[in-house]
């Protein structure tokens, strides 16, 4: 299998500079022949996905129901979100039918009323338990140097958020772990099969600077190729 990879990037949400970072991700993936369509219209994007022509779905968004804390009240009208049954079916059908899925950073927090999202992605945020220290220096350390995504890559330190205490799918084996200075280490990069599709999850990527770190850039390009079963 060769040629251009068509990618749909679902993005948008609060507390993260997606408007700057998502186009940067587009440029990074373009380096390995990935042509991306970027949208913050989740349902509309998934309708387009269902019509065909895409090889990869990238979820780089922060879209959940925004329940609980009133600090979210000013943002609920624009950004609170519950994925429709049709959207869930479209996303599941795409990956299960052989499409690639790349979930970045806040993808773990998305779709919080859809339990199957954790099973598909391999991990999910748990409100009231999951957390991260304030954004600062974090170090990603490869733990499986035999996998194509991490082979030959050194540990690297970047300013980001180290997610921890989230829910992991049973039997998940991380390719890399991440920890903030003085904090506990948690899985930060993993892969899994989902039906006929391939899934990569990467919990880093708060902003453009994180995505563009030379080692992180390598991981992202390899992730897109691996998820689409293309040579690395």
Query: Could you name the CATH homologous superfamily of the domain at 5-126 and 188-227?
Result: Class I glutamine amidotransferase (GATase) domain
Shape: globular
How far apart lie the N and C ends? 12 Å
CATH architecture of the domain at 5-126 and 188-227: 3-Layer(aba) Sandwich
**Total beta strands:** 11
Task: Report the C-alpha radius of gyration, rounded.
Answer: 16 Å
Domain ThuA-like: 83-227
Pfam family, one: ThuA
Protein name: ThuA-like domain-containing protein
InterPro entries: Class_I_gatase-like, ThuA-like
Q: Can you offer a commentary on this structure?
A:
By secondary structure, the chain is of the alpha/beta class. It has a domain at about 5-125 and about 190-225: Class I glutamine amidotransferase (GATase) domain (Rossmann fold, 3-Layer(aba) Sandwich). It is built from 7 helices and 11 strands. The protein has helices at about 20-30, 40-50, 75-80, 85-95, 115-120, 210, 215-225; strands at about 5-15, 35-40, 55-60, 100-105, 125, 135-140, 155-160, 165-170, 175-180, 185-195, 195-200. The strands form 2 sheets. Strands 2-1-3-4-11-10-9-6-7 form a 9-stranded mixed beta sheet, sandwiched between helices. Strands 5-8 form a two-stranded antiparallel ribbon. A hairpin with a 5-residue loop joins strand 9 (about 175-180) and strand 10. Helix 2 (about 40-50) crosses helix 4. The chain starts with a strand and ends in a 5-residue tail after the last helix. The model has no long low-confidence stretch (mean pLDDT about 95).
